[in-house]
Design brief:
Layout lengths: L4 H11 L5 H29 L4 H22 L1 H9 L6 H15 L5 H8 L4 H24 L1
Length: about 150
Amino acid sequence: MNIEKKAYKKFADAHAPSSPTVKNCIWAFFVGGGICILGQGLVCIYRDFIGMEQKDAGTLCSVTLIFIAALLSGLGVFEKIAKRAGGGTLVPITGFANSVVSPAIDSKAEGFILGVGAKIFTVAGPVLLYGTIAGAVYGIIYWIGTMI
């Protein structure tokens, strides 16, 4: 059976279930916003009740959110939340924690070296690589801009 690309696309689009885009956006908005509210609440608790400096409270908030996301990923809860909230769970710090923990869990059966050690950064690795390169390029552009 030889079908042209346009005909196949038309056929596939006609038979694919429609996506509830508005509902998905609302879920993503509220879950992502909830994660941000949780983060701000943690900063306020660490700063106002424990007496930390703002910078230290922000750092501890990041560590806490990473821990919570990694724990929920390990328990299989993060994936259930992500199925409902979609992009809302990709708030950078929690999404990054999940992208490191998930491949580690999936490759655990292959051993610690060839499984976890080799595959732990399969998702997060490109983010680290290109984020570092982009930061270096921006730094060079900024440095040249200050010299002019």
